[in-house]
Design brief:
This protein has 301 residues and is of the alpha/beta class. It has one domain: Thiamin diphosphate (ThDP)-binding fold, Pyr/PP domains (Rossmann fold, 3-Layer(aba) Sandwich). An eight-stranded mixed β-sheet has the order 2-1-3-4-6-5-7-8, with helices on both faces. Helix 2 links the parallel strand 1 and strand 2. The longest helix is centred in the last third of the chain and has 21 residues. The two termini are 28 Å apart. Bound molecules: thiamine diphosphate and iron/sulfur cluster. Iron/sulfur cluster binds next to helix 8.
Length: 301
């Protein structure tokens, strides 16, 4: 597959200017590049989330591909139905893409997603991860990090580490599982293109900073996403038919340096304002150990 760069990236736009997401929302940026990669040849299905807000209220939308709005728990089941429907009418030109937040994936949608993966259903599933239920004001999800203050962990912050949804999907034996980050849009674009060239259930997890939920200025979204990669908090990789590979900023970090201290990243976000020294140490140890495991998998330890 030829490398895409800022010069040869398509200038076609499928996400039109003007939507109702917050300024600085990483989801807008990620979705713009996901749609560019899909090149209009897709039907998306979306559950209740900030992404439904982006799609807009009928009859007005800023998105130029067809979208099905589904109940919260059912986005993967909806994709399964769309795949069957397209097959029944002989349409081979469209990719079905289910896209949901971390609440709609890690927690509420995981049953339908697990079933679709086990059946080897033929669609792309993208989870954009803003580490909480953001559309309803930032409640804790299975992906919220330890120490983060949310609406449902208001004083001490969440007490558990996030679950590793990509590992869960790998354990289902999916042919393609990858992580991406809105601050690395070309890497994201490339991964969606690769997923499109494969069949079966392909899973991409996109790290998506949320300025109001995480408590950082609207203008810092890209920097926050980059810092997440530089500290090893967000790790960019893909697993293609069982073969693991670090990509983009994480590959560069593995080859040329070592992760920056996590406190540099946490201190920029209001949600970690009440974090204790003990939790900070636990988080740093957890991130360091996980980074070592990724290095070992990549054969770079
Ligand atoms: C069954 C059901 N429960 C609750 C809601 C209310 N609700 C709408 S969006 C949302 C949050 C979704 O969170 P997430 O999936 O993480 O996506 P995000 O909002 O962060 O984009 C909730 C709880 C709903 N629409 N349906
Ligand atoms: S709440 Fe967060 S994820 Fe939702 S639109 Fe605003 S910035 Fe984006």
């Amino acid at each position: 597959m030829s490398q895409v760069n800022a010069v040869n990236l398509t200038d076609k736009e499928y996400l039109l200017p003007g939507n109702r997401l917050c300024p600085g929302c990483a989801l807008s940026l990620a979705y713009r590049h996901i749609l560019k990669a899909l090149d209009g040849q897709a039907i998306v299905t979306v559950p209740a989330s900030c992404l439904t807000v982006l799609h807009g209220m009928y009859p007005v939308t800023s998105v130029t591909v067809p979208c099905v709005n589904t109940p919260f728990a059912s986005v993967a089941a909806s994709a399964t139905g769309l795949v069957a429907g397209l097959k029944a009418v002989g349409r081979k030109d469209l990719t079905v893409v289910a896209i949901a937040g971390d609440g709609g994936t890690h927690d509420i949608g995981i049953q339908a997603l697990s079933g679709a993966a086990e059946r080897r259903d033929d669609f792309i599933y993208i989870c954009y991860d803003n580490e909480g239920y953001m559309n309803t004001g930032n409640q804790r999800s299975g992906s919220s990090p330890m120490g983060a203050v949310t609406g449902t962990t208001p004083i001490l912050g969440k007490q558990q580490h996030p679950e590793d949804i990509v590992a869960i999907m790998e354990a289902h034996g999916v042919p393609y599982a990858a992580t991406a980050n809105a601050s690395y849009p070309l890497d994201l674009y490339q991964k969606v293109r690769k997923a499109m060239s494969m069949s079966g259930l392909r899973f991409i997890h996109v790290y998506s900073p949320c300025p109001p939920g995480w408590g950082f200025p609207f203008s810092d979204t890209i920097k926050i996403g980059e810092l997440a990669v530089q500290t090893g908090w967000s790790v960019l990789y893909e697993v293609e038919n069982g073969v693991f590979r670090l990509t983009a900023g994480s590959e560069a970090l593995a080859r040329k340096g070592s992760p920056a201290p996590l406190k540099d990243f946490l201190a920029k976000q209001g949600r970690f304002n009440t974090i204790t020294e003990e939790t900070l140490r636990e988080l740093q140890d957890w991130v360091t150990a996980r980074w070592q495991r990724y290095l070992a998998r990549a054969g770079l330890a």
